[in-house]
Each structure stands twice: as C-alpha cells, then as structure tokens.
Write a structure and sequence with these properties.
Elements: H1 2-10, H2 12-31, H3 41-47, H4 51-59, H5 63-66, H6 75-90, H7 92-98, H8 102-134, H9 142-169, H10 174-184, H11 187-200, H12 205-227, E1 229-236, E2 239-241, E3 244-246, E4 250-256, H13 263-279, H14 286-294, H15 300-321, H16 324-333, E5 336-337, H17 345-370, H18 372-380, H19 391-413
Antiparallel strand pairs: 1-4, 1-5, 2-3
Length: 421
C-alpha cells in the first residue's frame, strides 16, 4: 500500500490530480464554516436537534447545523440527477438523447444543472421560510428571506461546479467526493463525543470495543456485497465479413448484487422524512404529535417501513437501470448466446430471473445496513452511532472503492504496482 502510494506521488500527472483534488476539498471545508448572514445561532442549535435536520447535517459535514453557505450541500444536484434518470425512461426525447453518445450526455448534464438550480432555490426558500417562522432570523423580513435563499442556492451551484472540476482535473467522481468529505469530516467530532461519554462514565470500554468490532465487520460486509457480482457467460459465434473473421470468443455479463447502489436508501429515507417535514409546519397539531410518536426514527414502525421501502425501491431502481429485454436483444443482434439458453425471449426471462434473485439479496442487505444505527445503539448504548450508519456508511465505502479503482488504473497504465494486489 505504501509502495503504491509512493509510486502514485512519483507520477507527475497523478500527483497533480491528487493535489488538485485535495485543494478543492479544502475549499469545500472552508466554505462549510462560512455562515449565512442574519441568523440567531442559539435558535439554530435548537432547530437542528431533530431527526429531519440531523439527516442532512451528516451529509453536509456539519454545514447544515451551522447553516453555512454550503448548508444544502450537493443534495439538490443528487435529486435533479435522480429525476433526470427517471425522466429519461419516461420521456422519449430524453431517451434518444441518452443514446446519442457524448453530445446527448452533455445536453442531459446541462438540463441537470438547470434542475439543480431550480430545486436548490425552491428548497432554500422553504428553509428560509422555516427559519422565519422559528424566529431564527435577526431581520425578520421578506428581503432577508430572499437573501438567504439566494446565498444557499449560489453555494449549491458553486459546489456543483467544484464537483465537476474535480471530476475533470482531479481524481475520482467530484460530486461523490464532496459527499464523502462531508461525512468523513464528522468522524473526529464523533470520536471526541465517544471519549467524553467514556470519561463521564456514561459508557464503558467494553461498549466502545464492541462498537469498533461491529463497525469493522459491517464495513467488510459492505465492501464484499458492493463488489459482489454474478457473471453470466456469453458465447459469440464466428462471423466471416469479407476476409476477416469476427466473434468466436467467450465473455460475460456482470450483474452486481447491489446494482442500485445507495439510491434506494435515499428514496426510502426521503419518503419517511416527508411526514416529519410537514409536521414541522404544524408543531401543535395532532398530526405532528402522531408523527413524532409513531414515525420517530427509532420506533418499530419506522424501522419496518424503512426496511420494506428499501426493498421496494431496490427493485424499482434496478428495473430502470437494467432492462433484460434490451440486453437479450443486443446479445442476439451480435450473434451471441448464453450457453444452454435460447437467444431472444428465453434469454430475457433467464436474465430477469437471475436479476430478481440478486436484487432481493441486495435489497435485504441495504435494509439491514440502513437500520443498523438502531441495533448499534441498542447493543453499545452509544448514541453517536446514529450518525455513522446506513446511508453514510454505504456512500463512504462506495466512494472510497471507486476512487481507489481510478488510482489503480492510472498506476497500472504506468507499470507501477497497484493498490489491489
């Protein structure tokens, strides 16, 4: 590992990319501490103790709690990207653009940027209105609300630009790395909190050791499932075109156990957090009381609903990104077949059967990881476990693996030993 890192730093191009990425992440962390003007810090601290705001605070690396210029993080961009993916399946024009290659992807990226700004401004307006109702603004006027909304929207747009620059000139996926940096930046504060609890006698050393052992085992399981895949063998028949012979080789179709990634967890969390969002506007109503009683994140009903919704969205999103009929048609078009399976409809049915079983396993695993904080708190008594489970863990592991693979590719191109032996 250390030899591979030294090899990476010796390569001028890769060294420049790594340094650029680290500098951009430093800019992100500095901006996360620049507060939006006109806020009452004492009121803000009371507001962000709830489950709804705590979820976004983990992703933004504490910027949401401080309501800095990067408070909304890159969340509007993620939402816009998901919406564009869904619309690409529904709207024929967008589907044609997606199949037009590089130029089509540029157009879709441009639409995603516009959607990010629109969604960011709507979210910022809602947030500023909530702050106004809660008395968190030092100047309680409409222009002050608009100023906060524009500042937050500009911060999100800047982060979107920053992420694209990292992808282009740095190493790894820029948007993913920004989320990764935000989550990882909370680890030192969590470690300090655990140390203070240990010092105060609220927890014992056995609980801390149990917490660390469970964390290591879960991370290993996430890596194993994230990298797990079923390889479907495909044989291509020989074709003679003129004087050249094409085909005749064997290959495979890799189908991941967790094809949907972290998207189902985000979808399920968003659906379950929606009632809490509405309840914040009516704090004294019976509806808000019922939501706080039955849909708190540690209630049995919330855990069951989250688990079932994650499995549902895993099937839903996998069906969008992987179409067995199209794959079967492409295999048949180029003279390929799965050994023992007839080309065409039989191949599509076989792929659908395999995909369904893998998706069920992936969905159950995602559900278990997402509900992990509840069991961690029950087993160890460490409340800080809530901020480092589920979605955050999946994102951190996924981004780390993706970035390592990109560095691996750069090293192998220059004949250096890679990170993964």
């Amino acid at each position: 590992m250390l030899e591979a890192l030294r090899g990476a730093l010796k390569m001028e191009d890769l060294r420049r990319r790594i340094i650029f990425t680290l500098l951009m992440l430093l800019v992100f962390r500095i901006g996360a501490h620049v507060p939006v003007p006109g806020l009452d810090a004492s009121v803000m601290e009371k507001l962000f103790k709830g489950q709804l705001f705590g979820f976004f605070d983990v992703v933004s690396g504490g910027a949401f709690r401080r309501l800095s210029i990067f408070a909304m993080s890159i969340t509007p961009y993620i939402n816009a990207s998901i919406i564009m993916q869904l619309l690409t399946v529904v709207i024929p024009r967008l589907e044609r653009l997606a199949k037009e290659g590089e130029e089509g992807r540029k157009k879709i990226t441009q639409y995603t940027r516009y959607g990010t700004v629109i969604l960011g401004f709507i979210q910022a307006l809602g947030l500023s209105y909530t702050l106004k109702r809660s008395g968190a603004l030092t100047i309680n006027t409409v222009p002050a609300m608009l100023l906060i909304a524009l500042t937050l929207t500009a911060g999100t747009a800047f982060l979107m630009w920053l992420g694209e620059r990292i992808t282009e000139k740095g190493i790894g996926n820029g948007i993913s790395l920004l989320i990764f940096a935000g989550i990882v930046s909370r680890i030192p504060a969590g470690a300090v909190q655990i140390f203070n609890l240990l010092k105060a006698g609220s927890i014992n050393i056995f609980s801390v050791l149990l917490f660390l052992v469970i964390a290591v085992l879960v991370i290993a399981a996430v890596v194993f499932v994230t990298e797990g895949q079923r390889k479907i063998p495909v044989q291509y028949a020989k074709r003679v075109v003129g004087r050249k012979v094409y085909g005749g080789q064997s290959t495979h179709i890799p189908i991941r156990v967790n094809s949907a990634g972290v998207i189902p967890v985000i979808f399920a969390s968003s659906v379950l957090l929606f009632p809490s969002t509405i309840a914040t506007y009516f704090p004294t109503s019976k509806f808000a009381l019922a939501v706080n009683t039955y849909l708190s994140w540690r209630s049995p009903l919330y855990i069951i609903l989250q688990f079932l919704l994650i499995i549902f969205f895993t099937y839903f999103y996998t069906a969008i990104i992987f179409n067995p009929v199209d794959v079967a048609e492409n295999i048949k078009k180029y003279g390929g077949f799965i050994p023992g399976i007839r080309p065409g409809r039989a191949t599509a049915e076989y792929l659908e059967k395999v995909l369904s079983r893998l998706t069920l396993a992936g969905g159950i695993f995602l559900g278990l990881v997402a509900t992990l904080p509840n069991f961690m708190i029950y087993a160890t008594g460490i409340e800080v476990a809530a901020g480092f489970g589920g979605t955050a863990l999946l994102i951190v592991v996924g981004v780390a693996l993706e970035t390592m693979k990109q560095m691996e590719a750069h090293l192998l191109m220059r004949h250096y030993q890679g990170f993964i032996k």
